[in-house]
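Posting this for the archive.
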Amino acid sequence: MFMLSNFILALAKLINVVLSAYIWIVIARAVISWVNADPYNPIVRFLIQITDPLLSRIRRILPPMGGIDLSPMVLILAIVFMQSFLVPTLQQIAVSLR
């Protein structure tokens, strides 16, 4: 059972790193939206492609109000919630399996 425990613990750490990286990607996307970035730049296109699926879902529920788009903040809060809930839960499951 220790192998399964170590696997779940490694999975929890990987999820934590991926979610942290995605937070920075969302922040970069928000900063790029403030400036007039070249839409043909590969980095800009990557940031738009990687964040648009989730941001567009949030925008359907919470449209921009007064020219302010709150969807990146809502997405970051959702990611922080997942980090606070999912990662410790997986870590506790891994510890209980030992």
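The mean pLDDT is 92. The longest helix spans residues 2-34.
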